Amino acid sequence: MGADYSIKAHPQANVLYGQVGNGDADHACRERPQDMTTPRTSNKIDEQHPGSDLAGETAVAFAAASIAFSKSDPDYSSQLLDHAKQLFDFANSHQGMYQNSIPQAHSYSSSGFQDELLWAAAWLYRATNDKTYSDYLSSSGNTGGTRTMFSWDDKYSGAQVPVAKLILKGKAPNDGNWGNYKNQGEQFICPSYSDSLSAAKDSLNCPADSISPDDIISFARSQVDYILGKNPKGMSYMVGYGSSFPRQVHHRGASIVQSTRMGPPVDCPGRPPHLRFYTSGKKISATSIYFESLPYKVSSTLAT
């Protein structure tokens, strides 16, 4: 499972492996993962090469997993929590962005790490109720402000919403920075549920009785239903679910036959001008496997 893999990627308190291989080189050769001959170099962050964003979000994963296993497997939960604490300390004491330490990760570069540190502190406080993390949250000079989304490069709402939940449960005070988390969490959540709530979303403040649990559940269900096919195109975006879903996905392992059926492994010393590979006995362009998976037509001139 993911937690076990993450444990192996964190062999020491201040060492975390963040990427295996080189994305540019890997994408230059279209082949099944088990047939790859490109170097599988492991890249890490450490005290001399920090990555607070990567370490912080991995701490979140460990903290959340520790909560999930707290009742069914207390020993494993404790182990996960130890990893979470170590990574938060590492991220906070050796600050920096991970793409500066792992240049090969430039395709998923980060714009900052303060959001991941807050996110990690929020989840560790939830997992431990330790004053260390509440002090970090309450003393932070930047709680994120009003956010319009939660994304791979913006985790502020991931801290604001859990802290707001703690305040609503009476586990944290509703004043100072704590109040900022709650107000910002409300402004992130409330506009999502109904366009009729307010046209001025920047200053929207939802009273407790404006959004009911049923409203929240209904919105969450609508998002899942959209993914599974209740959308204008009537297409499921989960491969294999429903009658209409992507048939030729941009996934090398799912779209390429075994090398034993297509001859010797492909030699990829460099990126050729026009990649080709075999799938189901038919030779097609490497780029078309992606474009053909889309629910709409894309000009072939884009497939370069």
From TrEMBL:
Q: Does the keyword Hydrolase apply?
A: yes
Gene3D superfamilies named among the record's database cross-references: 1.50.10.10
- Name the keywords, alphabetized: Carbohydrate metabolism, Cellulose degradation, Glycosidase, Hydrolase, Polysaccharide degradation
**EC numbers for this chain:** 3.2.1.4
Q: What class of enzyme is it?
A: hydrolase
Which spans does this entry mark as compositional bias, Basic and acidic residues?
24-34
Domain of life where this protein originates: Eukaryota
Q: Which residues form a coiled coil?
A: none
Region (Disordered): which ranges?
A: 18-52
Identify its protein family. Belongs to the glycosyl hydrolase 9 (cellulase E) family.
Question: What's the protein called, per UniProt?
Answer: Endoglucanase
Q: Which organism is it from?
A: Vitis vinifera (Grape)
Please name the gene that encodes this protein: VvCHDp000724_4
